[in-house]
Amino acid sequence: WATGFKHTPEPGDLIEISRGLYQHWAVYVGNGDVVHVTLPPGAANRIKSVPTKKATVKKEKMKEVVGDSTWKINNSLDEKYEPRSARIIVKEALGKVDKRMEYSVIRENCEHFATKMRYGKAVSIQVSGPISCVAVVKTKKG
């Protein structure tokens, strides 16, 4: 995990940003920019009570999105799935900017978006791990 920009991502790389209990994902598109899925302000605090929300795809400066968080380039699924060319990844990600989409912690989250751009297939390791179980348990209790 990095806190600065010593590691230089390449266009098409997936950026994993640590947000404490969860990871936020973005696609690096070059020139210091990332494309990622964002929820309206305050929506992240309400996710457990409202499982599906509308989200927006945004292009922003990576350092603004990362802020004080740690981050890493995470293309670990390259071992399992064939990544598309950087040109296609970037073109498709930029084509989604300002589009609204359904958001679901379980089925359509920021990691699903990022992996769909890189591999053409939406995958979330985070959802299949322990954090998703916590989210489901909280949802059912709440």
Automatic annotation (TrEMBL):
Keyword ATP-binding attributed: no
Sample GO molecular function, one term: N-acyltransferase activity
Entry keyword Ribosomal protein: no
Domain LRAT as annotated: residue spans: 14-126
A Gene Ontology cellular-component term: cytoplasm
Annotated InterPro entries: H-rev107_PLA/AT, LRAT_dom
PROSITE patterns: LRAT
Pfam families: LRAT
Listed PANTHER family: HRAS-LIKE SUPPRESSOR - RELATED (PTHR13943), PHOSPHOLIPASE A AND ACYLTRANSFERASE 3 (PTHR13943:SF31)
Similarity comment text for this entry: Belongs to the H-rev107 family.
Protein name per its UniProtKB record: LRAT domain-containing protein
Organism per entry: Sparus aurata
The organism's taxonomic lineage, starting at the top: Eukaryota, Metazoa, Chordata, Craniata, Vertebrata
